[in-house]
Amino acid sequence: MLERLKSMGPGLLVAAAFIGPGTVTTASVAGASTGFALLWALVFSIFATLVLQEMAARLGIVARQGLGEALRGAFDNPAGKWAMVALVFVAIGFGTAAFQTGNVSGAALGLEAVTGLSARIWAALVGAAAVALLASGIYRVIERVLVVLMSVVFVATAIAVRPDLGAVAAGLVPAIPDGAMLTTIGLVGTTVVTYNFFLHAASVQDRWDAGRDAKAALSEARFDTVASILLGGIITFAILVTAAAAFFGTGTAIESAGQMAEQLEPVLGAYAKWFFALGIFAAGMTSSVTAPLAAAYAVTGALRWERDLKSARFRAVWAAVIGIGTLLAILGTSPVRAILLAQAANGILLPVVAAFLLIVMNREGLLGRHRNGLVGNALGAVVLLLSGFLGLWTLLTAAGLVG
């Protein structure tokens, strides 16, 4: 077991990516506005993440390709290849830029809560810091500290507020309260992060090299994936439960980091605001480097450019995502709203990218005996259908075609 724990790495990177300010904010808003009613959506999200990230890790270890490269190779004719490249640009480019807006906004929101300085000013500084962190690589140290710190505090807080266990159990039954569709799709989108498929498939290749026995590498990668994602799920579950117990039914609308910090007061008392601000800032900084990194892996893979962290093209992609996300964060009027919209946008993109992943995972020429079997395809189909329904309903609601 100790050796398995030592082998963990890419899974923690994935977990750190979705335990960002978007998760903290969206789970807090979901709990405050709907109580425990959307816990089922969170459970589905964790299940979907486990299924799809296992596929992404298997692709990277067995085929030694990122998802962008595999998608390009799935089409024989030039028109199909370039259509796929265009879709990667649109889907991942838009998705990571939307996420980056939420990440930068979340980090700025935390800093604003304790300094009083405008979130727009902090957004510009956070964007610059993200560039520095990604260029230096020291963000990996922050990720591990953040996951442990947030785990202890939010789980302890969830226990301290003594939620109604009967209400918690009732929330595991699928139902969407009136007006909560955007929150539901946002909760899914903040957990099942589409760009993580690209990030995971690339990062496992660095952790388990081509000379490693595939069976042993897959076993270690699955343990890494399951343990890390379950830990991330527990943190998100704790945040939602705490917010529901603290705010639901009080008429409180989450509009600032200071309000969200109130859920930590049972454990931290007067220090809650400071801890929460530090936590959401660290979460934002960590996520602010994973989104651009994933975009760079996706785009360079689709175009068959060199996948080198120091190459000019690779750096240009992640720099563009940071620049766009930072600009939108500076121009945004409501950091909380920006974060929720970013998660919802990801939720809408999820079925598209999940469908691409399933296509690739069934290619015998690419994966051989490690391609998806009946069970893998069945689980993937369940995720695809439910996420597709939620995404379609959100689009129809936005168009005014359904109430």
Structure write-up:
There is one protein chain. 79% of the residues lie in helices and 0% in strands. The protein has 403 residues and is mainly alpha-helical. Helix 2 packs across helix 8 and helix 7 (119-136) crosses helix 15 (272-303). The longest helix is centred in the first third of the chain and has 38 residues, at 78-115. It is globular, with a radius of gyration of 20 Å.
Question: Helix and strand layout, with pairings?
Answer:
Elements: H1 2-7, H2 10-18, H3 21-34, H4 39-63, H5 67-73, H6 78-115, H7 119-136, H8 139-160, H9 165-170, H10 181-191, H11 195-207, H12 214-247, H13 257-261, H14 265-268, H15 272-303, H16 312-331, H17 335-360, H18 364-367, H19 374-398
Helix pairs in contact: 2-8, 2-11, 2-12, 2-15, 3-10, 3-12, 3-17, 4-10, 4-11, 4-12, 4-17, 4-19, 5-6, 5-15, 6-7, 6-15, 6-16, 6-17, 7-15, 7-16, 8-12, 8-15, 10-17, 10-19, 11-15, 15-16, 17-19
Short overview:
The protein is mostly helical and about 400 residues long.
Observed structural traits:
0% strand, 403 residues, mainly alpha
